[in-house]
Write a structure and sequence with these properties.
The chain is built from 7 helices and 5 strands; from the N terminus they run βααβααβααβαβ. With 133 residues, it is α/β, with parallel strands linked by helices. A 5-stranded parallel β-sheet has the order 3-2-1-4-5. Strand 4, helix 7 and strand 5 form a beta-alpha-beta unit. Helix 3 runs antiparallel to helix 6. It is globular and about 40 Å long. The two termini are 26 Å apart.
Length: 133
C-alpha cells in the first residue's frame, strides 16, 4: 500500500462521525488519486472511547474504505521501536493520540487532519500541511 497523503487524528475521526464534510472530502480526494489515508490505532481507540456507541458505525464504515489504513506502532523491544518516540511526541502535544498522529505524519511525510492544530504544531511546526476541522 502507498504511503498515506493524510493522517486523521482523534479529532478528525470524531468530526467524521459527526458528518464534518472536510474529513470525508480528504478521504475522497486521496481515494480519487489512488492514494491512502492513515488512521493511527491510538487515535482510533481514543475516538471510540469519546463517541457515543450510536456513532461507532461511522468509524466502522470509514475503516471499510479501501483508501483507509489503520497504522499500528512498531513494537520491537530489542530493535527499532516506535513507542519511545510516540511517547515523547505525546508529551509535547499533550495527548497520546496526537503524539501517534504526529509520528505517523512525520514518518509518512503526510498532511494531518485534526481538530487541534495547536497541539500537533508543537511537534510538526508551523509549516507542516495541516487541515483543521
Amino acid at each position: 500500500m502507498n504511503a498515506p497523503v493524510y493522517v486523521l487524528d482523534t479529532g478528525a475521526l470524531m468530526a467524521y462521525a459527526q458528518s464534518v464534510d472536510a474529513v470525508g472530502e480528504a478521504v475522497v480526494e486521496a481515494a480519487d488519486a489512488g492514494e491512502t489515508v492513515a488512521v493511527p490505532l491510538v487515535c482510533l481507540l481514543e475516538a471510540y472511547s469519546l463517541l457515543d456507541h450510536t456513532e461507532h458505525e461511522f468509524l466502522r464504515m470509514l475503516r471499510r474504505n479501501p483508501a483507509v489504513q489503520v497504522v499500528t506502532p512498531a513494537l520491537h523491544v530489542d530493535r527499532a521501536d516506535d513507542c519511545p518516540v510516540i511517547g515523547g511526541m505525546a508529551r509535547q502535544t499533550g495527548r497520546l493520540g496526537a503524539g501517534h498522529a504526529a509520528f505517523v505524519a512525520i514518518s509518512s511525510a503526510a498532511g494531518l487532519v485534526t481538530s487541534r492544530a495547536d497541539q500537533v504544531r508543537k511537534v510538526l511546526g508551523d509549516d507542516w500541511p495541516i487541515i483543521e476541522v
